[in-house]
Design a protein that fits this description.
six-stranded mixed beta barrel, 2 domains, four-stranded mixed β-sheet
């Protein structure tokens, strides 16, 4: 998993009025969960752009007033109209406690069904996995070379070492669908 360095400062004031003042200064109020106690802190909104607006999943090296800890993003709250970041929650990770995160899915290879006139569809762009953070990959790579026309890869077909996939087992990750042109050609060949 890639790492991202982020620094913040401890937050002293709490409540709606204090949060509004923090946001007015182009900062974001944040909370770090999972340690001995929850830590409230402030981060500059501009520092979060490369962390949030990307398909990558990062392990965040969080430095709050000189104290460093490793964390992952747990939740982000956006403003409904302006889409500014209102609040962020981070979860501190450790070597012995599993965490659940969403990992992007990448397809490789040219499916046999595509060669036969079908269309490859990626139905799930991310899969939710649970495991120790050191075992979590940057992305899940699935080979679709042997995927024939009308066939699919389901969550139960995805096997990852030292990780548990939390999505529904019968959910479709990728499939090769028959196109109208291929159906027309098949119907014409059958007559």
């Amino acid at each position: 998993m890639k790492t991202f360095d982020l620094s913040g400062s401890a937050r002293a004031d709490f409540g709606k009025k204090a949060a509004k003042a923090i946001r007015a200064e182009k900062n974001v109020p944040c909370v770090l969960y999972g340690g001995e106690s929850n830590v409230n802190f402030i981060v500059a909104a501009s520092d979060l752009r490369k962390l949030i607006y990307t398909p990558e999943v990062y392990l965040v090296n969080l430095t709050i007033d000189g104290k460093t800890s490793k964390a992952i993003i747990k939740e982000i709250q956006f403003h409904p109209v302006s889409e500014d970041i209102l609040h962020m929650d981070f979860l501190e990770v450790s070597e012995n406690k599993p965490v659940a995160v969403e990992i992007p899915v990448q397809l490789t290879g040219l499916a046999e069904g595509v060669k036969a006139g079908g269309k490859l569809n990626l139905e799930m762009r991310k899969l939710r996995v649970k495991g120790i953070y050191t075992n979590i990959p940057e992305r899940i790579v699935l080979d679709v070379t042997s995927l024939a026309l009308g066939k699919k890869i389901q969550v139960c077909d995805v096997v990852l070492d030292n990780l548990e996939v939390l999505n529904a087992k019968n959910a479709v990750v990728a499939q090769v669908k028959m196109t109208r042109a291929a159906r027309g050609a098949a119907a014409a060949a059958g007559k």
